[in-house]
Amino acid sequence: MTSTAPTFNRGRPSRWRRLMFKAPVALYRDGPAEIMRRRCVMLLTTKGRQSGLPRTGGISFMPLDDHFVVFSGWGIRSDWYQNLLADPEVTLQIGRRRIQATAVPVADPERRRQLMRQMREQSAQCGPPSPIRELLRRTGVLDYDGELELAVAQAGSLPVVELIPQADQQDRLPRH
Hints:
Layout: H1 15-27, H2 30-38, E1 41-47, E2 54-60, E3 62-64, E4 67-71, H3 79-86, E5 89-94, E6 97-105, H4 109-121, H5 130-138, H6 144-153, E7 160-165
Antiparallel strand pairs: 1-2, 1-5, 3-4, 4-7, 5-6, 6-7
Helix pairs in contact: 4-6
């Protein structure tokens, strides 16, 4: 296994996109939380590396065996990614379930590529439903499939993280 730190850096998203990325946090309540879980969106809470305060954001995930895989489409400078590098103990909310987990960055570029290919294969069940994807793409808000293709193309240098639930949390894992 080759170990190489991710290097992908896409810069910061626009103000509009940053606002859009905050929407899952506001919507992740009761019924909508279960809908978002089925569309592979979780809330990830890290500890702010400078403030020490909890920082929560919505993020796409892929369930894999007894853990979850996430990636930073905006690269190594994403705040949530920098936060979990500083403190890998995180809280996940998947649907109505809260799970304590440890974030483990994937060091092997080939493993990152493999995981991103798997995520692309499962993407039909995740993210916005097809009609909404097309609407988002046509309006220029978000090209979900294009973003996923970019992630797969950059997978060797993309920050990919495995979120491993703590041993006493296994009974809290949602069933997909």
